[in-house]
Amino acid sequence: GVANKLSLVPAPPAPLAQKLVWEKQLLGLYVTAHPFADFARQLDDVLITAAHVQGAPKDSWVTVGGVVGKITRKLTKKGAVMLFVTLEDVSGSVEILVFPKTLEQTQALWQEGAPLCIVGRMPKEEGDTKVFAEHVYAVTPENVQALRDQLRLGRTVSSIPVAQSQTAQPRVVFALSREELSQHTDALKQIFFDHP
What is the pTM of this model? Predict the structure, then answer.
């Protein structure tokens, strides 16, 4: 008989991203690293980890990030499509509910393995740890810093309590870092002078 020979041709090492895809496909988990780990480090001051979502106050806003795991499509009573998505970060996973209105605006982003950042609301019911997605952002090496700045600003502004009353005047809230304040002090003074 003729012996079959197997010969391996030298090849360049596989990129980390490809190794992670193979690990997830073959083993069902990431071994070498987590694909969201670098993003998580860059966004650590604006994200809550999946492991900490259960401790978030009910009916509060949270920002989570991770890679899309399992996606389950469901039909609402009205026949519209909604998603139940497992979002995985380095600490674990969290379930995200994507209602039809949000899905309509973000449909292209929901791909398994896609790194996303999600701003959503916790349920009003005690003990439910799903996040209801409101705003969804793709995370890339090119946009991660701009996304961080955008989320940091939004988080700072939304966390400033504003007294509400029937006669409250409209107000503007500025959330600036020390650096931004020192860079724009003169311009702000002029704006306040021009518009008392």
Answer: 0.68
